[in-house]
Design goal:
By secondary structure, the protein is an alpha/beta fold. It contains eight helices and twelve strands. It has helices at about 10-25, 35-45, 60-65, 85-95, 105-125, 160-170, 180-185, 195-215, and strands spanning about 5, 25-30, 50, 75-80, 95-100, 135-140, 140-145, 150, 155, 175-180, 220-225, 225-230. Strands 2-1-3-4-5 form a five-stranded parallel sheet, with helices on both faces. The protein has a four-stranded antiparallel sheet with strand order 6-7-8-9, covered by helices on one side. A three-stranded antiparallel sheet has the order 10-12-11. A hairpin with a 2-residue loop joins strand 8 and strand 9. The radius of gyration is 18 Å and the shape is globular.
Length: about 230
């Protein structure tokens, strides 16, 4: 049973979403501010967190920043209808996905299930050996899908599930262009739609992480209006 943490200052959302998730077989913990959630997470982490952005004591952005210092567990942001800047900033800071308020609870549950499946797929050591699960070496890049491990020139790079799957999709065929739609297919389930901006934000975050260990990293190339490609280095 996967444990989901819901963090939102709207008690109606906490109550209704937790009831829906528990009906789907999830274990749910609820918190009405970021500070309370962080204190609980410091004791024991859930399998996934669903965070509101605007909360008292500690907002969702700061909570995400604190979490990313210690874990790459999946995180979904709940954003207000007009918070486009917050959505992009949240993705750049390391959120895996976002859902706009007001939202369909069925949609949120599908996003949660999708992220958990992806997390299990890259962390499950019992997965059979396939092209997708073999250790992949592309020049200075090494990716081990079964251990969710990435190194660049021998330096470890910590990625979220989404970032890992996007980098894997690009690096599998160096020099070949991947459209944003193809990258969506690689990183998300068929029933989950994300827009181009979401993919672009994940790529920017991915580049930033690679450049944190190598300021000269330039292997992910943007082809404006087309997509992205990986150039082996």
């Amino acid at each position: 049973m996967s444990k989901i943490a819901l963090v939102d200052d709207d008690r109606n959302i906490l109550t209704s979403v937790s009831i829906s998730l528990e009906a789907e077989g999830f274990e749910v913990e609820t918190y009405n501010d970021g500070q309370s959630a962080l204190e609980a997470f410091n004791r024991k982490l859930p399998d996934m967190a669903v965070l509101d952005i605007k909360m008292p004591r500690m907002d969702g952005m700061e909570l995400l920043q604190r979490l990313r210092q210690k874990t790459q567990m999946p995180v979904i942001f709940l954003t207000s209808k007009d918070d486009e800047i917050d959505e992009v900033l949240g993705l750049r800071m390391g959120a895996d996905d976002y859902v706009k308020k007001p939202f369909s609870q069925r949609l949120l549950i599908e996003r949660i299930r999708s992220l958990l499946r992806r997390q299990q797929a890259v962390e499950n050591d019992e997965v059979g050996t396939t092209e997708e699960t073999k250790v992949m070496v592309r020049g200075s890049l090494t990716m081990d899908p079964l251990r969710h491990a990435v190194t660049w020139k021998g330096h470890e790079v910590t990625l979220t599930v989404t970032e890992f799957l996007l980098l894997q999709a690009l690096a599998q065929r160096p020099g070949f262009v991947k459209s944003r739609d193809q990258l969506m297919d690689a990183a998300y389930d068929d029933q989950v739609y994300v827009d181009d901006r979401t993919i672009d934000s994940h790529i920017k975050r991915l580049r930033k992480k690679m450049r944190s260990v190598d300021p000269d990293f330039s292997s992910i190339e943007t082809l404006y209006g087309i997509g992205y490609k990986y150039n082996e280095a």
